[in-house]
Amino acid sequence: MITKVSFRSFYEYVASLSRLYGDRPAMTVQSGNGWRTLTYLDIFDRSIRLARFLKLKNVQPGERVIILSEPRIEYPEMLLGIMMSGAVVVPMDAKLSPYEIRNIIDHAEPKTVFVSDSLWETFLKAQGYSESTYSCFRIDGGEEGRGLNKIEAPKTIEITPIDPNILSMIIYTSGTSGKPKGVMTRGSALLFEYEQIKNVAYSPRLERALSILPMNHLFEMTAGLFGNLTFGCEVTVARSLEKEHLMYCLNSKKITHICAVPLFLKSIKDGIENKVGNSSKIERFLFSLLKILSRMIPLNSIRRKIFSQVHKGMGGHLFRFIVGGAPLNKETAEFYSQLGMDVLEGYGLSETGPIISTNREQACVFGSAGQKIDGIQVRIDSEHLSEDGEILTSGPHVMMGYYKNDELTNQVLDKDGWFHTGDVGYVDKEGFLYITGRIKKMIVLEGGKKVMAEEVEEVLANCSEISEVCVLGSQKIYGNIGGNEEVIAVVVPSESVKESLIHEVDIEKHVIDSVKKAATVLTNFKQPTQIVVIPTELPKTTTMKVKINETAELVKSRIQQR
């Protein structure tokens, strides 16, 4: 769908930000004992310079330009510069193998590839497999030292506003199963989402963000980068997820908010609870008492004072998590709320720009994905399901289709412009959207009863003896061999369990007993008939979603070894 947005082009967008915020810090990263910073004016000047450089190198409108880089403060200027030149930017996952990089390069057929020095060797291996012909540009300069900071192009090369309704970006996503797909996104869809984030998430307290997620993913790109830049935040880029570095960033830059995936929030929660669990009996009692007291106080400002020591351990200024990428456990959200923190969960897909719905500061219901953003449509199609229904959406945020794959496009985009998400859910009377599962993860038992794997996972995730859980149907593991479908829970023991019990047999028995007990709150047919304990963490995507197919193979292999 074509739409009109306040920003009519990426040129106008970045020019507007430079006028509004000028010399204010935009992007920051730790460099030695100090910080390296780009201002809003810097991003404008450097993105214009890159657009001119691409034109100088004869990159034509519509040609693909790949970015293969770890998160960095130059990422926004590269995205903007490429799109302002009229080319199509293809941000690539920095953690892909050479084989996977080769596949995407051959599919995208780029004119140019921008590569960071840290990924140069990986890229060379991929290049050896590839049959495509393209030019390479080393972002950091390589041995010659002439990188992004030193590119030159005549100012006489004119950069004019590009129609935002053309293809501007291709996001390659494999999701949790299946082969990578190239999601074609209009510039207008991206600009629309940036504007919506400002409308639903802005707060004068949101001053300094910490970027911890891969920048090639639309959630981080939209909410973590351009959403924050749209209302003048300073975005600090984390160089790693090591605790010491994150704490240094939180304290030094006085971080106020973070865009994160649920697993990140759970890991912090587990750390706090483990620390409390290892404290004295009096301290454990006091912490429990404070949580009870906190529930009676609606004001986050007072809750923060009650748990001031906990907040001090997170930098003292952090007050909000914006969560996406996977469903957030309700108990985890409530835990942070009791500490006096905002937890705003949203929902969307790469195919939808990505945001479809989100909770707001003044309209937040834990367990829901919030209310739809303005300017789009959402409806529930329950025709083919006995309960709830598939979530459909249409509007300016929806993708153009999958690159070079009309067949797959036609499977998810109908003739009326509705995108079929493959997710199952419902909308309540107040307009809050609830996600109850994915059609592909639905387990159909003998007699037709349906089990949503996500519902079982949410219950089992509350079991303190496990750190991860994935629920699968038995046919996903063994194939359709004629037997009855069963519910299988795949779990990973928590670190505390591993430390307290030495022998693997004891760990497995303890974990299985604990999971069975946790599952008793479910209806009998939803309870797992088999529990498989995996000693190591489950395979995941770079946004920390469990890879279903690889997990199924892991379980099958473990069962066969017994």
CATH fold-level name of the largest domain? Rossmann fold
- Largest sheet properties: 9 strands, mixed
The SS-based structural class is alpha/beta
Number of strands: 25
Q: In terms of per-residue confidence, which ranges show pLDDT below 50 for 5 or more consecutive residues?
A: 1-5
Quote the average pLDDT: 90
Structure description:
By secondary structure, this protein is of the alpha/beta class. It folds into three domains: about 240 residues, ANL, N-terminal domain (Rossmann fold), CATH 3.40.50.12780; about 180 residues, ANL, N-terminal domain (Rossmann fold); about 120 residues, ANL, C-terminal domain (GMP Synthetase, Chain A, domain 3, 2-Layer Sandwich), CATH 3.30.300. Helix content is about 35%, strand content about 20%. The chain has 19 helices and 25 strands. A nine-stranded mixed β-sheet has the order 2-1-10-9-11-12-13-14-15. A four-stranded parallel β-sheet has the order 4-3-5-6, with helices on both faces. A four-stranded antiparallel β-sheet has the order 16-17-19-20. β7 and β8 form a beta hairpin. The longest helix has 17 residues. The chain is globular.
